[in-house]
Write a structure and sequence with these properties.
Blueprint: E1 8-14, H1 21-33, E2 40-47, H2 53-63, E3 67-72, H3 77-88, E4 93-96, H4 107-118, E5 122-125, H5 139-155, E6 168-171, H6 172-175, H7 187-197, E7 202-205
Parallel strand pairs: 1-2, 1-4, 2-3, 5-7
Antiparallel strand pairs: 4-6, 5-6
Length: 206
């Protein structure tokens, strides 16, 4: 049993990630061990993987008590995976990362410290605001993402640059109060729009 609340929880939704799970979780662990944070946890959400993801996750948790695993018996998609993370995480601040680490682990401290200094409820890592950039992403996928986010920006009263991005920090007390319904990638814009309705403080970083 945990005897104290960790400063932050790193939430890692996973589906069929046996090839990258162990090295990438190790990279996150190594980063956190060198960080300013004295207490943290990593929460792996195994979303009904059909490969060895679940077994590898269990082994990682067995080797390190700071790692926990929640298994979905079947694949429920990203939205459910993120919501499961929100329900089970113990930290005061939640950080959601893509397990492929397409966003550098350095964003963890940048987002958390931005949250603390600005009193934000959500901090979004944005590749589309000034100072941000996209690398190693196929051209068509990059253009589609840019178009979708520009359209959402035009349609939204509050003008952010990135609505679909998954890499974010959340204040626990706030995000656990948001009633989420969507089951897949649309969960990320759903969080943004519902948070705006609730007048949450949202801050973007490049």
């Amino acid at each position: 049993m945990k005897t104290s609340t960790p400063e932050l929880s790193i939430i890692l939704p996973c589906f069929n990630e046996e090839a990258i799970l162990k090295p990438n979780v190790s990279e996150v662990v190594n980063y956190l061990e060198k960080s300013v944070y004295k207490s943290w946890e990593i929460l792996i959400i195994n979303d009904g993987s059909k490969d060895k993801t679940g077994a590898i996750a269990n082994e990682l948790a067995k080797e390190d008590s700071r790692i926990r695993v929640v298994h979905h018996p079947v694949n429920l998609n990203l939205g459910h995976g993120i919501q499961t993370g929100f329900r089970h995480a113990l930290g005061d601040i939640f950080v959601v990362l893509d397990i492929d680490l397409s966003y550098s682990v350095d964003h963890i401290e940048t987002m958390v410290e931005t949250m603390r200094s600005t009193f934000a409820d959500i901090v979004v890592a944005s590749p589309y605001m000034k100072g941000g950039k996209v690398t190693a992403v196929p051209f068509f996928r990059k253009k589609m993402s840019q178009w979708v986010n520009r359209f959402m920006r035009m349609a939204s009263q509050e003008k952010f640059h990135t609505y679909t991005g998954m890499v974010r920090a959340y204040k626990k007390d706030f995000i656990q109060s948001v009633n989420l319904k969507t089951k897949d990638y649309e969960v990320n814009p759903e969080i943004m729009y519902k948070s705006m309705i609730l007048r949450a403080r949202i801050v973007e970083i490049p």
